[in-house]
Write a structure and sequence with these properties.
Blueprint lengths: L3 E2 L19 E5 L4 H9 L3 E2 L8 E3 L4 E4 L8 H9 L3 E4 L3 H9 L12 H12 L3 E8 L2 E11 L2 E9 L4 H16 L3 E5 L3 H4 L4 E3 L1 H11 L14 H5 L3
Parallel strand pairs: 1-2, 9-10
Antiparallel strand pairs: 2-4, 3-4, 5-10, 5-11, 6-7, 7-8, 8-9
Helix pairs in contact: 3-4
Amino acid sequence: MLPWLAPNSIEFPPISDALNDPDGLLCAGGDLSATRLMAAYRQGIFPWFNPGEPILWWSPDPRCTLVPSQVHLSKSLRKAIRKSTFEISFDQAFSEVIKACAAPRSYSDETWISTPMQNAYIDLHRRGVAHSVELWQNGELTGGLYGIAMGRLFFGESMFSRATNSSKIAFAYFAKQLQKWGYALIDCQVENSHLTSLGACCIPRVEFQQYLEQNRDATLSHTWQFDIDKQDVVSTQ
């Protein structure tokens, strides 16, 4: 029987209780308040559910992650970065980014980023917890991503692309900037080919928990502004 969260408590079941099938499903219910969401991320738990369903909370094993210094750029992507004319920014259009991530994709008309989900993360953005990356071409928003920063960890939620390579370019800049700032890990949650092409890989949940315990309470001093250039991004390790 799937546990249901108590309405007046932000406690979650132990992540070791998560189901194997479907992988990582831990519990249901609760709300999307900032307090509950932050309590969830501290434990490696995130919400993921379709509109009309109860809120479902997950902690998959293994976990898809990326160490910022290990971001992989193909030769073609390096070439695209060198040749493209674009601007990159943090937190200039958070609401636009999350709405773009929620828009229908070529392979599906459905989205899990419902209006309540959008509102919850916009609230976290206002609190300085959630951040967005925007890629601009000729003044138009063509790609980006958003997620949660906590200590030396960034929990990626979703990304979008309106032009060839735009989300990959945004992610490449983002990973390099996090590397410069000393971030230990980007949580990518669930594996997909787009992420693995950029260097993401799966690690056991117990290893992910070690990253959490060692880095979630770290204090970093930086402003959310890019201070790297194309050469920083395309240079080899």
